[in-house]
RNA sequence: CGGGGCGUGGCGCAGCCCGGUUAGCGCGCCUGCUUUGGGAGCAGGAAGUCGGAGGUUCGAAUCCUCUCGCCCCGACCA
């Protein structure tokens, strides 16, 4: 490609509305342009990178025996209603109507569609297992798109779905996919970490996310030196017990007029928040549930939903709270409740003489003792992880880092095959639901993640494996016949050698061309100028290390092609 | 959805508070000449319904009302 003919619109100044490194550089280097909030054009340079990443993904998917296919972006509402996700997915599911008012979803993920294919086409256990994948534009109507393509409403994703006769077979593919993902991110030269993850709206029994380490990342990961790593939504920890040993005192109701929050009550009664029990009423798939946790901690709704086996858990509306507790919001407590399931976090167990809501207006109760004043069958973990929590595996204090979630894999089990009645016949002729796994990888997000980890104050430093071009031939003073001739010959020779090469043949001043070269970050820059030509040399410079040296013009193309070959992943 | 901010040639911004010639600046773009190893110089030039609608006024980029869009923080969320 010749720069003079290419659409590579670079900018000298940072765009005013971009905050993160990758967002700024993708705009400045002419990789992307915003069309509207959370929706981007991929310009030629950006698209070349996307294609390189896709190629790596395809190679690694094909290597473990996956088959590529393409499903439609648009799918009918009925399919989503079969699994209940038409309602569960919420506003993030981008819905559209056709001219007859029929409803459709723009696919955010394709479990329903792929399961529909498989239930119609696959009959026998002999055909199992297999994995289908696609690379496609996905839609999620994000509540707040941000950071350029990192959280976009329209983005490019690789999604794969595996089908099995049993859990063992799923485990095998899950492991193979996990390993393939490691190879993909290694080849993209990313520093990443797989971590245990929550399953969220996709559902299923186990899940990992691959996190690219990055301070501006949106996700928080909890890690322990023993090797434990999980997202903050998923992480389990031991909440340090700070309750001193006390003798239980008799319960005592107290007037707390208008004191509805932990903060209010804590201040009003002069007790620390951890000496209160927070009581929250939820509605889980239509059923009210009461959750208890130490007053200074928060409930993790994700964990609560998991333990209840519910697909949707949300804070109960005031009406439900009143019906369940007999009091308006702000005075709920565990004492005297009946006919409602009680979920008690482990942090409550060691508490003595604490304050709870009195289930009556303007009343709280002091000196409540779990086990004596209310009973639970079992203490569970429904706590949002906290800063000083200890590792459950080794007991040490855990740390955290921030990251960009570039992919997530799930063991779905039969969640979708059950609700969509997707079955195969086993050896005994019995209809069994497919056991499924699904495996997403954000391609466009991966591109941004690579930039986050590979840039400096001057611009991007592409790894060879994903660079839009492998070599840039920078002709200083392209008007000079000698320079032009050598540049053109090198350009042709490199192309002939199968190297992706960009020739900067613009009639601009050297400064402009050097700055642009640094900005777009092609791994190898070859500078051809009158200065070097006098001694029969050209200069080769590595963007990543800054290392540079002169090469004799004769044989330069072969030498450069060799270096490129060596650096390809 | 709550809070904050911003919409002025392609990009980055000034002007607005305190209304008053043809709305400016830097970069970019076009033409010509010179220049060519780290964002060149000179000369000439094109390009803006000041986000949109309504209002106040003799007069609105500027004041008022409504509206649309964009960004940030939060809530939320594979």
Number of helices: 15
The residue ranges in which pLDDT falls below 50 over 5 or more consecutive positions are none
What is the average per-residue confidence, as pLDDT, rounded to a whole number? 92
| Overall shape | elongated
Largest sheet report: 9 strands, mixed
Number of domains: 3
Radius of gyration: 29 Å
N/C terminus separation: 22 Å
What percent of residues are in strands? 25-35%
- Under the CATH scheme, the architecture of the largest domain is 2-Layer Sandwich
Instruction: Provide the helix percentage.
Output: 25-40%
CATH C-level name of the largest domain: Alpha Beta
Class from secondary-structure proportions: alpha+beta
Entry summary:
The protein is an alpha+beta fold.
Q: Any chance you could write out the topology, listing elements then pairs?
A:
Layout: H1 21-28, E1 32-36, E2 39-42, H2 44-63, E3 67-68, E4 74-76, H3 77-83, H4 85-88, E5 94-97, E6 103-106, H5 111-121, E7 130-139, E8 154-164, H6 167-187, E9 192-196, E10 206-213, E11 219-223, E12 229-231, E13 237-238, E14 252-255, H7 262-269, E15 277-284, E16 287-294, H8 301-308, E17 313-315, H9 318-325, E18 341-345, E19 354-357, E20 363-368, E21 379-380, E22 390-391, E23 399-413, H10 415-419, E24 423-425, E25 431-433, E26 435-442, H11 443-453, E27 455-456, E28 459-460, E29 471-475, H12 481-496, E30 501-504, H13 510-520, E31 524-528, H14 530-534, E32 537-542, E33 548-552, H15 556-567
The structure holds one RNA strand of 78 nucleotides.
